TrEMBL record:
Alphabetical list of InterPro entries matching this protein: FTHF_cligase, FTHF_cligase-like_sf, NagB/RpiA_transferase-like
Catalytic activity: (6S)-5-formyl-5,6,7,8-tetrahydrofolate + ATP = (6R)-5,10-methenyltetrahydrofolate + ADP + phosphate
Key word Magnesium present: yes
Coiled coil: none
Pfam family, one: 5-FTHF_cyc-lig
Annotated family: Belongs to the 5-formyltetrahydrofolate cyclo-ligase family.
Keywords, alphabetical: ATP-binding, Magnesium, Metal-binding, Nucleotide-binding
EC code(s) of this entry: 6.3.3.2
UniProt name for this protein: 5-formyltetrahydrofolate cyclo-ligase
């Protein structure tokens, strides 16, 4: 087996994003299967269906909880298979794919043209595609050319997540499972800008996931955090009459599966495009226009 390519960054926090960490991952049936059935008259955040069953979908149409249970079971089975495939990936192949994916992103016109980006901080414990080069590309740009960068902070176990602006990797702190997240306030005690309160729209979301297909379906890790956040942000952009952001998911080759193999519910948010080791894979009309 060839030597593993490891990139070193001046800031140790960026380097830690590449290093494996021991993680415990608790999978709770309550995350996906209903144990509370709410009245149809109660409006509930759609993405929270993975934690507490609701009887209304995102369009206000009734959903039978019993019809969703087989979908949740299929999702659990698929997650197990994809996790096994990720765990058995050759480290050298993983490193090569990380490089190829990140190079595609930072060299793309749609990334270069973006003024405001929401991106995840990759976690080796979760076997996510590395984003350290992408984060570094933004944060190391000259101040006058720098994009706004918002990164996720999990608020609770009820699928609530914020995207807060950072200007340095020093703004990140380790939380559960050694995952790096932004502190609520900066070194001066000033509250960080929340993307939901920003006066400017986000151009681009760079998203993680467990599995994807070429129709745009995305399988998350069962928490519902991104589906809920994206739903809320899309509603905000409609209210403010902003252009919808481009939703780009990063995927290892083993995470792209046969089209139609990912079971979906009315609460799942599809992506506009994938970036894999093979390159940019546009899916939606918005993504196809970015290729023109």
């Amino acid at each position: 087996m060839g030597a593993i390519a490891i990139h070193f960054y001046p800031n140790p926090k960026l380097q830690t994003m590449l290093l494996p960490r021991k993680a415990t991952h608790l999978v709770c049936k309550a995350k996906e299967v209903a144990h509370i059935i709410l009245s149809p008259t109660i409006r509930c955040s759609a993405a929270n269906v993975s934690r507490t069953m609701v009887t209304m979908n995102k369009d206000g149409i009734g959903v039978d909880p019993h019809e969703l249970e087989p979908i949740f079971e299929q999702k659990r089975s698929l997650r197990s298979k994809v996790r096994k495939a990720l765990k058995t990936m050759d480290p050298f192949q993983r490193s090569q794919e990380d490089d190829a994916i990140q190079n595609t992103v930072v060299e793309s016109l749609w990334f270069k043209a973006s003024k405001s980006v929401c991106a995840y901080i990759s976690s080796p414990a979760l076997l996510e595609v590395d984003t350290s080069k992408i984060i570094s590309e933004v944060l190391c740009s000259p101040a006058e050319e720098r994009k706004k960068l918002y990164v996720p902070r999990v608020e609770d176990r009820n699928s609530n997540m914020k995207m807060l602006m950072i200007s340095s990797v020093d703004d990140l702190i380790e939380k559960s499972m050694n995952i790096l997240e932004p502190a609520l306030v900066d070194s001066d005690g000033i509250q960080r800008e929340d993307v939901m309160q920003s006066s400017d729209p986000v151009d681009l979301f760079i998203l993680p996931g467990l599995a994807f297909d070429k129709s745009g379906s995305r399988l998350g890790r069962s928490g519902g955090y991104y589906d809920l956040f994206l739903k809320n942000y899309q509603e905000l952009t409609k209210m403010k009459r902003w252009k919808q952001p481009l939703l780009i998911a990063l995927s290892y080759s083993v995470q792209i599966i046969e089209e139609g193999a990912i079971p979906v519910t009315p609460f799942d948010i599809p992506v506009d495009a994938l970036v894999s080791p093979a390159g940019f894979i546009p899916i939606s009309a918005a993504a196809l226009r970015r290729c023109e």
